[in-house]
Amino acid sequence: MNEPFVISVILNTNRRDDTLACLASLAQTTYTNHRVIVLDNDSTDGSVPAVREQYPDVKVAPLEENLGYAGNNNFGIQMALDMRADWVFVLNEDTILDPDCLRSLVTAGEQDSNVGIVGPMVYHHDEPTIIQSGGGILGPGWESIHLEKDQIDAGQLRQNHFVEWVSGCAILVRRSVIETAGMLDARFFYFWEETEWCLRAGKAGWKILHVPAARIWHKGVQRNYTPKPYLIYYDTRNHLLLLQTHHAPLKAWLKTLADILRTLVSWSIRPKWRGKRLYRDAMWHGLLDFTLGHWGKQPEKSAP
């Protein structure tokens, strides 16, 4: 029986070395019916010639406009659909895959025709046995919760299990999901887009599956990771957009808004948080832009 055709979509923005390392790991995959698209977001670090020289079979697609993680990846997703992909693997450029990762994901997805999205076990790259994400659920305020986050992998997640969402650093999506539920919501630009996509797919009747046997290492987040102010902007605005889009219950709205207001007050008046003023401003602008319905890229006037 023929294997399903999988196309990996990797977005690169001046991350030549990371992208090349990711491609090197993909080159070792045991899954054979597979192609790769690298989307390049106007890089100036020699990414495009390096990829073309070292991986001539990889399709490189320069982007004409920066539409963020969501919009840019949608361009690659559409390319993959046009190339007749059965599954689209949206993959961060700062990931390293185990050779059997893709095969494990596809095999698990193909075992149940109701599974629409599949995600791997994500580990911290700098601590290879520490889990970054074992799949995700929503908390009381619809906050995103990574299962077993920052825990050593002692085999606590052995079996494939259904979740509400999977980490966007590596997300395998069935073609039919995209055709029935759509692509990433470009309004989010960056942050929360994969969670929203999974929730939308779930509402359309698809199952979201986490596969612990599929392993990947992600460089972008560490245990001591402190997000930059611009991420606070997107986190605030897009979390509220998620609540609005999916008609979250009043309890989730109240908890989320209370957490935002409490943080804004704390970062404004408590002396110990004087260093958080840029974060406070970013959160305030995120709240304001949600209220005004300003989506996409953060406006320059509101950026710290």
Walkthrough of the structure:
By secondary structure, the chain is of the alpha/beta class. The protein has 2 domains: 6-218, Alpha-Beta Complex (Spore Coat Polysaccharide Biosynthesis Protein SpsA, Chain A); 229-302, no CATH class. 38% of the residues lie in helices and 23% in strands. The chain has helices at 16-26, 47-54, 68-82, 101-110, 175-181, 193-203, 229-245, 250-269, 277-292; strands at residues 6-12, 34-40, 59-62, 87-92, 95-97, 115-124, 127-133, 136-138, 144-146, 161-162, 170-174, 207-218. The strands form 2 sheets. Strands 1, 2, 3, 4, 5, 6, 7, 10, 11 and 12 form a 10-stranded mixed beta sheet that branches. Helix 2 links the parallel strand 2 and strand 3. Helix 1 (16-26) runs parallel beside helix 2. The relative contact order is 0.13. The mean pLDDT is 95.
Summarize this structure as a short list of keywords or feature phrases.
alpha/beta, 9 helices, 304 residues
Q: Calculate the mean pLDDT score and round it.
A: 95
What is the CATH topology descriptor of the largest domain?
A: Spore Coat Polysaccharide Biosynthesis Protein SpsA, Chain A
Task: Please indicate the percent range of residues in DSSP E strands (runs of 2 or more).
Answer: 15-25%
Instruction: Characterize the main sheet.
Output: 10 strands, mixed
Sequence stretches where pLDDT stays below 50 over 5 or more residues? none
Distance between the termini: 55 Å
Q: N-to-C SSE series?
A: EHEHEHEEHEEEEEEHHEHHH
Question: How many domain units?
Answer: 2
User: How many DSSP E strands?
Assistant: 12
Which class best fits the helix and strand makeup?
alpha/beta
- Rg value: 19 Å
The first-level CATH class name of the largest domain: Alpha Beta
Count up the helices.
9
The quaternary structure here is single chain
Shape: globular
Query: Helix coverage percent of residues?
Result: 25-40%
